[in-house]
Amino acid sequence: MQGKIALEEHFAIEGTLGGSEKLVGTATGWSDISRRLIDIHDLRLTDMDKYGIEYSILSLNAPAVQAVLDTKEAIELARIANDALAEACAKRPGRFGAFAALPMQDAGAAAVELERCVTELGFHGALVNGFTQRDISDSAIFFDLPEYRPFWAKVQELNVPFYLHPRTAVPERRQHYENHPWLVSAAWGFAVETSIHALRLVGSGLFDEFPKLKIIVGHLGEHIPYNMWRIDHRLKKLPLGYPAKKPMSAYLKENFYFTTSGNFHDTTFHLALEEMGVDHILFSVDYPFEDMVDAADWFDKTELSDEVRQKIGRGNAIDLFGLNFS
Asked: Which of 89, 231, 272, 284 is the most exposed place for a label (fewest CB within 10 A)?
């Protein structure tokens, strides 16, 4: 399929590059991944042309701003990264768009930076790398907390999506991964940490207060689609004080969008599609941690009608972001 739109596609600046090296490791092609993170208009664009990707929405690598303990430094780093991305995208606005990096250490500052990026720089929304740390390394602040309600009010006011991207648990909180480092990041831990965060947002009543919020989650929903029935089923049976007004699945199907990033498997994809509906699944790659050839070749061949393939590969992104594409 030509004209695909991808939206979990990463870049880095020199000040954030090292964080991804810790996730990837030097023995797994880091030298190639690192140069692809820094590059935008050469290797990346060549692969986009080759594999039918017309437009990529770029975002800062993980954990980046979310791992900065000093709030003032986080605010400054977010601004530097966003300005760099805006400059890069301006060179080819028909091929690249941007998600804002946000200093979630300070909810007010994050709202201000999001508004600047959307209204002044033309960004499509924000991508945040999971929970944020602040002041001490043994910290993990989730965005369902009351201090973030004004931030979510701004997200709804601006009417832009918020991409909740994974990060690993901080070292001080990895007891359940002890002696099993292979579990910590993309193979398993990313899904665990991100799905817990997403379900916390739902269970907090956030979407009762802000019903127009749009949250994007990658990797075909970080295990969530395959457990929605059981989550609803058990919450009805157990007196646990669930505060939201509707079943969790109702919010997930209405307020959430899942992408194919890094999860190119027919069975998984079609189950997520059945649970979420065709309007809430979007194509993505997770470049450069995944290869465009794998994402595009799988998506172009998986069993779908032409109409559904066009919606997931292109049309849903046009609608969600209000893109001026035919």
From this structure: 231
| Planar angle of CA 177, 171, 216, nearest 5 degrees | 80
Domain that holds residue 11: 4-321
Question: Is 126 domain-assigned?
Answer: yes
pLDDT along the chain (326 residues), means of 10: 98 93 70 94 97 98 97 98 98 98 98 98 98 97 98 98 96 92 92 97 98 98 97 89 94 98 98 98 97 98 98 98 90
Query: Given the structure tokens 């931030």, which residue do they identify?
Result: 151
For residue 70, give the 3-state DSSP assignment. coil
The count of structural domains within the chain is 1
Write down the catalytic residue from 47, 106, 144, 286: 286
The CATH code of the domain that includes 225 is: 3.20.20.140
Residue 294 designated active-site: no
Smallest CA-to-CA distance from 316 within 100, 161, 153, 99 is with: 161
Residue 300, amino acid: D
Domain assignment present for residue 326? The answer is no
